[in-house]
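Risk register update: the risk that structure generation would not scale has been downgraded. Supporting records follow, first protein first.
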Amino acid sequence: MGLPSQMMFRIGMAALLHDIGKVAMPDKLLQKAGSLTSQECALLREYTVLGAQILEGSLLLADLAPAARHHHEHWDGSGFPDHLNRADIPLAARIIAVAETYDSLQRGHVPQADRSSEFALTDLQCRAGSQFDPTVVQILTEILSGQQEQQILQEESVTKG
């Protein structure tokens, strides 16, 4: 994306800490199997706000608060907590949303996910423009495609030589 290295480092830090607000959520709620009630959903959605408040309390981490608060905002404005849309969502939050979903799909944290990179990318591409920033999804697709091409070339050179 052509971002400065310092900004990439801070986005990486935000990615590591984006769910910090979950420490304030009851374990029973976080570990509940099955559907959540509407009250439980509302309570759980507060963790992004709590996470931002925790980060704002630190001089060294305060700049990461918007990423923690807004990583569940959707490109079309249907997310939470503030229903931001498009470029109003901080770039770090848009990147984290795509990365977190890709990781969840690959690790099988999402029911019915087949854990393949192709499945995860297809899922993200289907939601680009509604849930996710289409540019971020496109860049992830290009990066992963480039990595796959490199891997194929390396395997071919090992086989030939």
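Supporting record for the second protein:
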Amino acid sequence: MIDKEYGKYKLICDCCGENDKELIFDTFQEAVDYKNDFNWLSMKIGEDWFNYCQSCKESQGDING
């Protein structure tokens, strides 16, 4: 998920909860660019988006290709 807190955006893995200081961004687009650049898996289920870090994506198998 990308969560907004105190005017900053945090990228958090919806599986393991990975979130560290490096995953805090000034804009929503910066968070999106990071997850794309570092090969995170994003899936839309219903109206919600879920984001999975590289480790969780690999442990579940790359279902997105």
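The longest strand covers residues 41-45. On this basis the risk owner (M.S.) recommends closing the item.
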